[in-house]
Amino acid sequence: MFKSSNILMAIVLAVAVHAPATAQDVEAGRVKSQVCAACHGVDGNSMVGTFPNLAGQSWRYIYIQLKDYKEGRRTHEIMTPMALPLSRQDMIDIGNYFAAQVPKPSSFQADPDKIKLGMAKANETLCAMCHLGAFAGQNEIPKVAGQQYDYVVKQLKDFKARTRTNDAGNMTSVAQTLSDADIENLSHYITSIR
Ligand code: HEC
Ligand code: HEC
Does residue 166 register a pLDDT over 70? Predict the structure, then answer.
């Protein structure tokens, strides 16, 4: 009896975590994310290469990153203090708000030759094994299609240099195999995906 109520509790919790976002969650997230808009855009489409787009990102990935900044597993001079005051519910609401926004195509002028080389490298390195085809992302694995060029370059370099380590080792080991030219080509390709 005791055991089955524990199992029931686990199911109730699992359902609560995976329940689809309601309009109220998204609206709560919109209000809570007003302070974020200056850099990430009101609709999660950033206007600056070093500020990542959040529109259309999975809510779960956004939630995990905010939690990692808050708890020190990922550090950044701007984002660490931004995440510190957020509660778990704030992070979930904000994640749901940005996940519900429509991504806009990047205005970055990607080089066609670098796009081709980047696509070949992505196929060779099996990025799609985790990020799915065309870097669409799934659950806690981020969508990177159409992400800001400068931001993508910085993240791949940070993983390679092990200054970003909140990825359970997945990206750290992938990034060791990438040269600076590979990182540039991959970032041209990723940014150009619509
Ligand atoms: C002053 C500019 C600024 C503000 C304001 C800001 N951010 Fe950021 N944000 C950044 C930068 C720069 C990065 C990239 C940091 C890095 O390289 O780790 C980032 C990264 C992120 C990431 C990680 C994205 C990814 O793809 O991994 C999330 C999530 C995020 N911010 C959410 C927020 C939220 C939510 C708020 C408001 C509570 C906010 N940010 C406010 C500049 C800002
Ligand atoms: C074994 C699974 C796996 C493979 C293969 C993989 N990734 Fe990732 N990638 C991840 C995970 C998981 C994260 C998120 C890590 C975290 O939570 O901080 C990530 C994060 C990223 C990010 C940062 C996104 C952001 O918004 O900050 C970029 C860029 C990226 N991957 C590009 C690539 C490229 C390019 C390849 C192929 C060369 C690749 N990944 C292969 C699992 C993988």
Answer: yes
